[in-house]
C-alpha cells in the first residue's frame, strides 16, 4: 500500500497508528472498534502475555478452548499484583505496587487514628478505661471486708442464684436474645481489658451463664420429636453438648485459681534430712536412654548415705545389670512380671527401706536440685504423701514435630502441668503422674503400694492416698526432663492407655462415691476422668451437621438465626474465657486438633473400659527411637479420611440444597455448611499430624547457652558458649572464627559447683565461628560428669518454662485454617503419589487436559521482548 | 586506695603475668591502676612492651641517688607502672632498711582515692618485707600442683609474722588445665581448704599468655578473646569486691 494511502487513513482518523494502515484486516478492525493508540499489532503482542499457554504463531484447535477458559478466568479471578507461582513481586509494575502501598498506608493511618482515639479515651475516662486503675478498684472491691460478714455473702449468693436462674431460663425472642448477647459481649470485652485474677472470674461467670442458657434453650425448645430418627439424632447431639458443657464447667472449677505453691526450704542440718530411694523402672528401653537418667539420679544433691538409686529392670537384661554394677547403683529384678510398672515398683518396695521414694521414668533426667526442691514440704507436714513436679520434654512430640510447632506453640502437656495440676493443688487434689514425683513410703505401703487394678496406676494410687486423708502437693518447677513419644502411633497408644485407665478408675473406684474425699477433690478427679470420654462427643460434633445436610434431619429444631444467636455466644465466651485463663499454656482451638486426632482412637477403648473395666493390659510407651523416613501414616488417617469424605459429601449436598431447597431453609443450610467447613479444617489439621516428618538425629539436642572453655590443639584456650547439646555432641559458638579440620581432637571443659570437667571430643565441622563437636571415647566417669554438667543442671529447664500469653484467640483460629489447608495439600500430594501406577495413557490424558487450565499471566517485563 | 601484693606460693608460678593481667583488666574496666615491680629480675616491664635494654626503674634511680618517682611509665591506654630497674649484683638502696619506706612513699603519692596498686612481690629479700608491710591485701598465686596444698601452711605462718591478717589473704589458681586429672583434683582440695578465699574461677593455662609476652604485647591486645584474658577479667571483678571488703561469698 502506498504511503499516501496511509497518510490519508491517518489524517481521516480511521486508524490511529501507521502500522495499522499496513494490512486490510487491521484497517477493518479500526473501523469497527476503538483502536489502541499503540496500534493493533503492538497491542496484540502485549495481550499475548495474558495467554502464556497459547502459542499465537501456531494456533491449534484446542487453543480456542484455552483462550475462552483463560478469558473467563481473567474476568473472574485474576487479581493484579498478587505474587503467585513464579511471579516475582519485584517485577510487578511500580504503578501496581504503589496501589498496594497506598492501601497499606490507609490502614496504617486508620490504625493511628484508632490508637490516638484510644489514648484520648483512656485519658478522658481513666476510671472506666485505665487498666491498672481498673484492676486496683476491682481488687479493692473484691477484697473489701464487707464480704466477710456472713449475711452479706449469703445475700449475694442468693441474689446471684436468682439472677442466674432468670438469665438462664427466661425465654427470649430473637431480638431480645441478640440484645442480651451483645450487651454481655460488650461487658466481657471491657472486663477482658483489665488484668488480674478477679476479671478472669467475672469472665468465667459470664461464660457459664451464656453456656448454661444455651444448654437450657437446647433442652427445652429445640428437640424435634416429629420422627424417631430426628429425635434420636437430636438427643445424641444434645448429650454430646451436655457432656461438653459439664466438662467446661468442671474445668472452670478446677482451674479457676492456681495455688502456685512455693518451695519449702530444708533444715540447714543435713542430718535431719530423711533417706530417699530413687526408683527407675524400665522394661525394654535401650541402655543409651537409661544411662543419663541414672547418672543424673546418682548426682542428686542429697547426702550420699541417704540416697539410694535402684534400676528396676523388668527386662532382666545382663547389659543393664553389668552397667549398674560398674557405677554402683542398685539393680532389682523379679521372677514374675505381673502388673507391669506398678508391680515392678511394688516389688522394689519390699526390698528397700528408704523413708521416701522418688520415681523417674527411665528417660526422665532429673536435675541435681530435684530433691532439694521437693523434699522440704514433707518435713513440715506429716500427712503430705506426694509431691509431683511437671513432666517436661526436650524432644518434640509427634504433634510438634509434624506441625512444626516445637517451642512455638505450647504442647498438649503444658495445659495440664501448667494450669490443671496447679488448680488441683488448691483443692488438695493434685494427682500422681507416674514419674518426677516423690512419695512417702509409709502411706504408700498403707494402701498396698502402687495401685494395680487399672492401667493408669499413678492417678489411682493418689486417689487411694487422698481417700485415706493424705495430702498431695504440686510444684510447678521443671525439675526433670525427658523424651516425648516418638511417633504418632506411639503417642496415640499412650493416650489410649491413659483414657482407658482413667475410665477404669471411674468405673471401679469412682471418685464421686466412696469415703474420704472432699467435694472439691471429687470434682477434680471426676473431671480428670470425664475429660477422657471426649471420644464419642467429638465424633458426634464432627458429623452432626451431616444429619441435616445428608439426611435432612433437623437435629436442632430452631430457626437458623436463633441457632446463631445461641451457639456463637456460647462458643465465643468459652473461647475468650479459656484463652484468658490458659492462653499461656494452650493456644485457642489447638485443643480441638488434639482431640480430633485422638477422638476416634480412644472412643472404643474408653467405651469398652466403661462397660467392662476389668479388661485390658498395660502397654509400654516406646521412646528414644527414630523416625527414619518421612512417611504418611495412612493407617492412622483412615478414620479421618472417612470423616473427611463424609463432610465433603455433606458440603456438596449443602450446595445442592441451597439451589433446590425451599427458601426458608437457606439459613439452616448455610449454618450447617459453615459448621461442616470448620470440621473440614479440623480434619485437615488432623491429617497434617499424620505426616510423620523424618527425625535426623538419634539423640535429641537441647538448646542451651552454657559457658565453656575450648582447648585447642595448639595449647590455646577460648571462652565459648554452647548453642545446643546432646549426649553425643555439642554445637559451640566461638568468639572468633577458627578453622579446624574434621576429626581434630579437642577438649571442652565446663564448670559446675566450683570445679571443672573436661571432655575429649572430635571436630565434626567448623563454619565461621560455629563449631560442631562430637564427644569421643568418654569414660564412665566422664559420661556421668557430662550429664551432670548439662541435663542435670539445676537451671537446665528454667528458660523452657517461661511462656508468653497467646494474646488474642484469633491466632489460634488462624492456625486451624492454616493447618487444615496444609493437611489438604499434603493429602492431595500423597494421594497423587499413591495413585502412581495409573495407566500411562490416562496420565497423559490428564496432562493434556491440564494444559487447558487457565494460567497466571506472565509478568509485564515480557513487554519489552517479543 | 587498696594495695595488693601479688606473690607466688613458690617461684616461677606466673606471678608477674598475673600482675600484668590484672593491671590490664582493671584499666580496661576504667579503674586507676599502678603496677609496681619489686622483683630484681625486672621482668614486669616486658609485659607492657618496654624495651629489653631499658635499664631505668625505681630501684636503679634510688641507688643512683635520684628521685625514684620519675621512673613511672604510662601505657597508651592509661595504665601506669613502675619498673624495678636493672642493678648490679648486690647493689641495694639504703632506704630499704626501713621496712615501712614503701608504705610511706606510696601514701605520699598523689593518686586517686580509688586507685589500685599492684605490687609484684619477690619470694624473699627486703623488697618482700617492704611489699608485705605496705599491702592492704595479699594475693597468693598457686600452681595447680599437689605441692600447693603443702605450701599454704608455712606461707600463712610467714605472712602472719609480717602482720598480714588471714582474712586479707586471697588465693588464685594459675595455669590451670582442666584436661589434666591432677589439676582438677588439686582445685577440689584447695577449694576445700581455702573455701571463699580462693578465687571462684582459676586462670587457665593458655598458650596466648606466653605468646603475648613473646610478642611483647599486653594479653588483651594480643588475644582479646583468649580464655586467660577472660579469666583475668573475672579475677579483677572478684578482687574489686573483695578489696572493698564486700561479699564474703563467691
Automatic annotation (TrEMBL), chain A:
Primary subcellular site in the record, as a coarse category: membrane
Cofactor: Mg(2+)
GO MF annotation terms: cellulose synthase (UDP-forming) activity
Parts of the chain that traverse the membrane: 150-168, 174-191, 198-216, 228-253, 532-550, 556-576, 597-616, 640-659, 666-690
Designated name of the protein: Cellulose synthase catalytic subunit [UDP-forming]
Its EC number(s): 2.4.1.12
Organism: Crenobacter oryzisoli
Localization (cell): Cell inner membrane
Topology within the bilayer: Multi-pass membrane protein
Domain of life: Bacteria
Function: Catalytic subunit of cellulose synthase. It polymerizes uridine 5'-diphosphate glucose to cellulose.
From TrEMBL, chain B:
SUPFAM superfamilies reported for this sequence: P-loop containing nucleoside triphosphate hydrolases
Recorded superkingdom: Bacteria
Matches recorded under PANTHER family: P-LOOP CONTAINING NUCLEOSIDE TRIPHOSPHATE HYDROLASE, PARA FAMILY PROTEIN CT_582
NCBIfam families registered for this protein in UniProt: cellulose_yhjQ
Name the UniProt record assigns to this protein: Cellulose biosynthesis protein BcsQ
Amino acid at each position: 500500500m502506498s504511503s499516501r494511502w496511509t497518510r490519508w487513513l491517518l489524517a481521516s482518523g480511521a486508524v490511529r497508528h501507521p502500522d495499522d494502515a499496513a494490512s486490510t484486516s487491521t484497517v477493518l478492525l479500526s473501523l469497527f472498534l476503538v483502536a489502541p493508540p499503540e496500534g493493533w499489532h503492538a497491542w496484540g503482542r502485549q495481550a499475548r502475555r495474558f495467554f502464556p499457554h497459547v502459542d499465537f504463531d501456531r494456533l491449534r484447535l484446542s487453543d480456542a478452548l484455552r483462550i475462552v477458559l483463560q478469558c473467563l478466568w481473567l474476568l473472574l479471578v485474576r487479581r493484579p499484583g498478587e505474587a503467585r507461582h513464579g511471579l516475582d513481586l519485584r517485577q510487578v509494575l511500580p504503578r501496581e505496587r504503589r496501589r498496594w502501598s497506598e492501601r497499606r498506608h490507609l490502614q496504617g493511618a486508620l490504625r493511628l487514628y484508632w490508637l490516638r482515639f484510644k489514648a484520648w479515651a483512656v485519658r478522658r475516662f481513666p476510671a472506666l478505661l485505665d487498666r491498672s486503675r481498673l484492676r486496683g478498684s476491682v481488687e479493692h472491691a473484691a477484697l473489701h471486708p464487707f464480704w466477710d460478714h456472713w449475711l452479706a455473702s449469703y445475700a449475694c449468693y442468693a441474689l446471684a442464684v436468682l439472677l442466674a436462674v432468670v438469665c438462664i431460663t427466661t425465654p427470649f425472642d430473637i431480638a431480645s436474645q441478640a440484645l442480651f448477647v451483645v450487651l454481655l459481649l460488650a461487658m466481657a470485652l471491657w472486663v477482658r481489658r483489665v488484668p488480674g485474677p478477679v476479671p478472669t472470674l467475672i469472665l468465667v461467670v459470664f461464660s457459664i451463664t451464656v453456656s448454661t442458657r444455651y444448654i437450657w434453650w437446647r433442652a427445652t425448645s429445640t428437640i424435634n420429636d416429629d420422627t424417631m430418627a430426628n429425635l434420636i439424632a437430636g438427643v445424641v447431639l444434645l448429650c454430646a453438648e451436655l457432656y461438653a458443657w459439664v466438662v467446661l464447667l468442671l474445668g472452670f472449677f478446677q482451674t479457676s485459681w492456681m495455688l502456685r505453691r512455693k518451695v519449702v526450704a530444708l533444715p540447714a542440718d543435713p542430718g535431719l534430712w530423711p533417706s530417699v530411694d530413687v526408683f527407675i523402672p524400665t522394661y525394654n528401653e535401650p541402655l543409651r536412654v537409661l544411662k543419663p537418667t541414672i547418672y543424673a539420679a546418682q548426682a542428686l544433691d542429697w547426702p550420699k548415705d541417704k540416697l539410694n538409686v535402684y534400676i528396676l529392670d523388668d527386662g532382666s537384661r545382663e547389659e543393664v545389670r553389668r552397667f549398674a554394677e560398674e557405677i554402683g547403683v542398685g539393680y532389682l529384678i523379679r521372677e514374675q512380671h505381673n502388673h507391669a510398672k506398678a508391680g515392678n515398683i511394688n516389688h522394689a518396695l519390699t526390698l528397700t527401706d528408704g523413708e521416701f521414694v522418688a520415681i523417674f521414668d527411665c528417660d526422665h533426667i532429673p536435675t541435681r536440685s530435684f530433691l532439694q526442691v521437693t523434699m522440704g514440704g514433707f518435713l513440715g507436714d506429716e500427712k503430705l504423701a506426694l509431691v509431683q513436679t511437671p513432666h517436661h520434654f526436650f524432644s518434640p512430640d509427634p504433634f510438634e514435630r509434624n506441625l512444626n510447632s516445637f517451642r512455638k506453640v505450647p504442647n498438649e502437656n503444658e495445659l495440664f502441668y501448667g494450669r490443671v495440676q496447679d488448680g488441683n493443688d488448691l483443692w488438695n487434689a493434685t494427682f500422681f503422674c507416674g514419674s518426677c514425683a516423690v512419695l512417702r513410703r509409709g502411706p504408700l505401703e498403707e494402701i498396698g503400694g502402687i495401685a494395680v487394678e487399672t492401667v493408669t496406676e499413678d492417678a489411682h494410687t493418689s486417689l487411694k492416698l487422698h481417700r485415706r486423708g493424705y495430702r498431695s502437693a504440686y510444684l510447678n518447677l521443671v525439675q526433670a526432663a525427658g523424651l516425648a513419644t516418638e511417633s504418632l502411633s506411639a503417642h496415640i497408644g499412650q493416650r489410649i492407655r491413659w483414657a482407658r485407665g482413667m475410665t477404669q478408675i471411674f468405673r471401679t473406684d469412682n471418685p464421686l462415691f466412696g469415703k474420704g474425699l472432699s467435694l472439691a477433690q471429687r470434682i477434680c478427679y471426676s473431671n480428670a476422668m470425664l475429660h477422657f470420654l471426649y471420644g464419642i462427643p467429638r465424633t458426634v460434633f464432627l458429623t452432626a451437621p451431616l444429619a441435616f445436610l445428608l439426611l435432612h434431619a433437623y437435629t436442632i429444631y430452631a430457626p437458623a438465626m436463633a441457632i446463631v444467636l445461641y451457639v456463637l455466644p456460647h462458643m465465643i465466651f468459652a473461647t475468650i474465657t479459656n484463652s484468658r485463663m490458659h492462653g499461656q499454656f494452650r493456644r485457642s482451638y489447638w485443643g480441638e486438633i488434639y482431640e480430633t486426632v485422638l477422638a476416634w482412637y480412644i472412643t472404643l477403648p474408653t467405651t469398652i473400659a466403661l462397660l467392662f473395666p476389668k479388661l485390658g493390659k498395660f502397654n509400654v510407651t516406646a521412646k528414644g527411637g527414630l523416625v527414619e523416613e518421612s512417611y504418611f501414616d495412612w493407617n492412622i488417617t483412615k478414620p479421618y479420611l472417612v470423616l473427611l469424605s463424609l463432610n465433603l459429601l455433606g458440603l456438596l449436598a449443602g450446595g445442592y440444597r441451597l439451589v433446590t431447597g425451599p427458601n426458608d431453609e437457606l439459613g439452616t443450610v448455610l449454618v450447617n455448611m459453615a459448621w461442616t467447613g470448620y470440621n473440614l479444617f479440623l480434619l485437615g489439621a488432623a491429617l497434617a499430624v499424620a505426616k510423620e516428618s523424618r527425625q535426623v538425629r538419634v539423640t535429641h539436642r537441647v538448646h542451651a547457652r552454657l559457658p565453656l572453655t575450648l582447648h585447642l590443639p595448639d595449647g590455646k584456650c577460648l571462652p565459648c558458649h554452647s548453642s545446643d547439646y546432646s549426649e553425643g555432641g555439642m554445637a559451640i559458638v566461638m568468639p572468633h572464627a577458627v578453622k579446624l579440620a574434621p576429626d581434630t581432637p579437642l577438649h571442652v571443659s565446663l564448670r559446675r559447683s566450683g570445679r571443672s570437667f573436661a571432655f575429649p571430643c572430635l571436630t565434626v565441622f567448623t563454619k565461621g565461628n560455629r563449631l560442631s563437636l562430637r564427644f569421643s571415647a568418654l569414660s564412665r566417669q566422664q559420661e556421668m560428669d557430662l550429664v551432670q554438667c548439662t541435663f542435670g543442671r539445676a537451671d537446665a529447664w528454667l528458660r523452657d518454662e517461661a511462656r508468653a500469653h497467646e494474646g488474642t484467640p484469633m491466632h489460634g483460629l488462624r492456625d486451624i485454617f492454616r493447618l487444615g489447608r496444609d493437611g489438604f495439600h499434603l493429602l492431595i500430594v500423597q494421594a497423587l503419589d499413591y495413585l502412581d501406577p495409573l495407566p500411562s495413557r490416562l496420565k497423559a490424558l490428564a496432562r493434556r487436559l491440564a494444559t487447558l487450565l487457565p494460567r497466571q499471566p506472565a509478568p509485564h517485563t515480557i513487554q519489552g521482548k517479543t | 586506695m587498696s594495695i595488693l601484693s601479688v606473690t607466688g606460693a613458690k617461684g616461677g608460678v606466673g606471678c608477674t603475668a598475673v600482675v600484668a593481667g590484672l593491671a590490664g583488666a582493671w584499666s580496661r574496666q576504667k579503674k586507676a591502676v599502678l603496677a609496681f615491680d619489686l622483683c630484681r629480675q625486672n621482668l614486669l616491664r616486658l609485659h607492657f612492651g618496654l624495651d629489653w635494654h631499658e635499664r631505668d626503674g625505681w630501684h636503679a634511680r634510688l641507688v643512683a641517688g635520684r628521685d625514684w618517682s620519675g621512673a613511672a611509665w604510662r601505657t597508651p591506654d592509661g595504665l601506669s607502672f613502675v619498673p624495678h630497674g636493672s642493678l648490679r649484683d648486690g647493689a641495694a638502696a639504703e632506704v630499704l632498711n626501713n621496712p615501712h619506706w614503701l608504705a610511706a612513699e606510696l601514701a605520699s603519692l598523689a593518686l586517686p582515692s580509688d586507685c589500685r596498686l599492684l605490687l609484684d612481690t619477690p619470694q624473699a629479700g627486703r623488697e618482700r618485707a617492704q611489699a608485705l608491710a605496705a599491702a592492704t591485701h595479699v594475693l597468693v598465686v598457686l600452681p595447680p600442683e599437689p605441692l600447693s596444698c603443702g605450701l599454704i601452711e608455712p606461707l600463712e605462718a610467714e605472712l602472719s609474722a609480717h602482720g598480714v591478717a588471714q582474712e586479707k589473704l586471697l588465693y588464685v589458681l594459675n595455669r590451670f588445665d582442666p584436661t589434666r586429672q591432677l589439676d582438677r583434683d588439686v582445685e577440689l582440695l584447695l577449694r576445700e581448704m581455702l573455701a571463699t578465699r580462693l578465687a571462684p574461677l582459676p586462670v587457665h593455662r593458655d598458650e596466648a599468655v606466653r605468646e603475648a609476652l613473646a610478642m611483647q604485647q599486653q594479653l588483651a591486645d594480643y588475644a582479646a578473646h583468649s580464655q586467660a584474658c577472660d579469666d583475668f577479667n573475672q579475677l579483677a571483678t572478684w578482687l574489686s569486691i573483695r578489696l572493698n571488703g564486700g561479699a564474703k561469698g563467691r
